[in-house]
TrEMBL record:
Keywords: Membrane, Transmembrane, Transmembrane helix, Transport
One protein family per Pfam: AA_permease_2
Annotated transmembrane regions: 78-97, 103-125, 146-165, 177-196
Name used for this protein in its record: Uncharacterized protein
Membrane topology term: Multi-pass membrane protein
Gene3D superfamilies reported in the protein's UniProt record: Amino acid/polyamine transporter I
Tree of life domain: Eukaryota
Organism: Adineta steineri
One GO location term (cellular component): membrane
Length: 242
């Protein structure tokens, strides 16, 4: 979209809207600053969530360097290695927009699409292969579980397909939605990783007391060291103390 003064330059859509509806440039600038501040505070919890997920996956031994990625800084009790890893990957993705705006837009689209697929896979397995072996939790939907799961799978499948559609028409190499290429590449890498290594080593989520420990530098520990924690008192012990 062109700038407010008619200059032939590309603007962010949000900034272009601010300039279109506000008579003075100062108002658009103020709203843009508020938007930047909002994005900053939204990015911090987003990185926190991503690092927590990454730590949980490293704790279960999914990644090739899981032992290193599950380091916990003892003083602050945070997975420092995983936070640095997530920060580095996020920074590289941010730099991608300087190389190609189309590639960056496709990467942003893949973010939502990745959530869709991550929701679809466990729900689909829950109502198919694990239908009779799935252990219900304390809260469950009872007899409505399978019908709701089927509806959810249909919805997620349709909306995921729509996210592969191109942004503009006619489609060219500059405006193509490369989400299908990115998802296909990730699926290919994941499949190779699973066939040649993960299916022999990964056994699913593991309790923290059986996670392999490793020597770490001073000030660092592995994931939760429950072996050093005392077990909670039994009711009989508590009564005897009283």
């Amino acid at each position: 979209m062109k700038a407010h003064g008619g200059a032939d330059e590309t603007l962010n859509l949000a900034i272009a809207v601010f300039q279109s509806v506000l008579p003075h440039e100062g108002g658009a600038l103020a709203l843009t600053i508020l938007l930047i501040i909002n994005l900053h505070f939204a990015g911090t919890p987003s990185m926190t969530v991503t690092s927590r997920i990454g730590f949980a996956m490293a704790r279960d031994g999914i990644f090739p360097f899981s032992k290193q990625l599950r380091w916990v800084w003892k003083r602050k009790q945070i997975p420092l290695a995983n936070i640095i890893f997530v920060f580095t990957i996020d920074s590289l993705f941010q730099l991608l927009q300087f190389a190609s705006g189309t590639a960056f837009s496709s990467m942003v689209a893949v973010t939502t699409l990745g959530y869709q697929i991550s929701y679809l896979m466990p729900i689909l397995l829950r109502c198919t292969t694990a239908r009779h072996t799935f252990h219900l939790g304390e809260f469950n939907l009872g007899r409505f579980s399978i019908p709701i799961a089927i509806i959810s799978c249909i919805w997620l499948f349709i909306t995921s397909i729509l996210m592969f559609f191109p942004f503009q028409y006619p489609v060219t190499k500059d405006n193509m939605n490369y989400a299908i290429v990115i998802i296909g590449g990730i699926a290919l890498i994941a499949s190779i990783y699973w066939i040649f290594w993960a299916r022999h080593a990964f056994v699913g989520p593991k309790p923290s007391y059986i996670i392999d420990s490793m020597p770490l530098p001073p000030g660092h520990v592995t994931a939760e060291d429950v072996s050093t924690r005392s077990a909670p008192d039994s009711p009989d012990t508590m009564d005897s103390r009283v």
